[in-house]
Amino acid sequence: MKWAVVLCALVALSECLHKMPLIKGKSARETLQEKGMWEEYRKRFPYNPMAKFMQTGTDSMTNDADLAYYGVISIGTPPQSFKVVFDTGSANLWVPSIYCNSPACKNHATFNPKQSSTYKYTSQTMSIQYDTGGMTGWLGYDSVEVAGIYVSSQIFGMSRTEAPFMSYMLADGILGLAFPSISVSQATPVFDNMMKQGLVTQDLFSVYLSNEQPGSEVVFGGMDPNHYTGNINWIPLSSESYWQISMDSVTMNGNTVGCSQGCQAIVDTGTALIVAPISVLDTIQNIVGATGNQYGDSPVQCSDIGSMPDLTFNINGYPFTLPASAYVTKAYYGCRVGISATSSQLWILGDVFIRQYYTIFDRSNNYIGLAQAA
């Protein structure tokens, strides 16, 4: 496949971008609210957004009911298709298997290793802990197709059990795009194999998220200038495990509302909202007139959005501003601030932030690039 990279070098770069279209479907929250089941779900599966970043010997993830973006990949020969979340907050690829009897596996696509002529068995097991359950399974090797890129001998997980809340998730599995250091069982992540096998022209990928259908995509091996305007601001990583950066401060109306002494933030496509310390969310709620509820949500009047102040993240000397129309999420049931609280001092800049800023994840230089989304 390296000949394809050489060919790309001889033609316009835009013609060789490997684009993975992302579908923005209904989130689990929206589906459950329509069915009148949201309050019951929230009681059974309380949301802890920091769970996936607290390593305890096994990978950790959380039940994010607001995730809505997924893409379709295939595994095996002939190909078996799966909807996956492209998650920069984890490092493993895993999908359900035919050997899983959990309810979550009964309403999702499952991988059948017996139907793939290129599958290679291993005896390695894997376990991913969730704050309200877990996923257990084993590892195998097979060919994986992502955005027209064919990765050979990719190690991936197949679930044997899955946490109950996953029955309500739209995607079948997860494709992790973080660093190998956090990978369960030291399994090589998909993008690392793309780089090792010479399948991408540049050792980076970029993410564009839109509220519109279609339009959202992950670009492997490059960036699409049609998705951003102005300059790209490059920010060095402060940690090379997650995509973690240093922030200077967070302001509203010119006043600091958080991160006054500097703080750390993880840029994560696998977290739907922005996650901030509890005290910061309290301050923001007071400023915008939100009323917190028992589920950690911050409802606001949709008619007030036009009068709410901007929220600015000051990072590496650059201001990255979100108008209220970006940090307030709208749905048929009303409006709410797209920020969740955590007891940690670590911030997560999730999809609410990424929709406003085209994000480039550069592995060759260990930088994140941010540019105003077009």
TrEMBL record:
Keywords: Aspartyl protease, Digestion, Disulfide bond, Hydrolase, Protease, Signal. Disulfide bonds join 100-105, 259-263, 302-335. Its EC number is 3.4.23.1. One of its GO terms (molecular function) is aspartic-type endopeptidase activity. Residues 69-371 form the Peptidase A1 domain. The active site is at residues 87, 268. It is an enzyme of class 3 (hydrolase). It comes from the Eukaryota. Pfam families: A1_Propeptide (PF07966), Asp (PF00026). InterPro entries: Aspartic_peptidase_A1 (IPR001461), Aspartic_peptidase_AS (IPR001969), Aspartic_peptidase_N (IPR012848), PEPTIDASE_A1 (IPR033121), Peptidase_aspartic_dom_sf (IPR021109). The keyword Magnesium does not apply. Residues 1-16 form the signal peptide. One of its GO terms (biological process) is digestion. Shows particularly broad specificity; although bonds involving phenylalanine and leucine are preferred, many others are also cleaved to some extent. PANTHER family: BETA-SITE APP-CLEAVING ENZYME, ISOFORM A-RELATED, PEPSIN A-3-RELATED. Belongs to the peptidase A1 family. This is pepsin A. It comes from Synaphobranchus kaupii (Kaup's arrowtooth eel). The lineage of its organism: Eukaryota, Metazoa, Chordata, Craniata, Vertebrata.
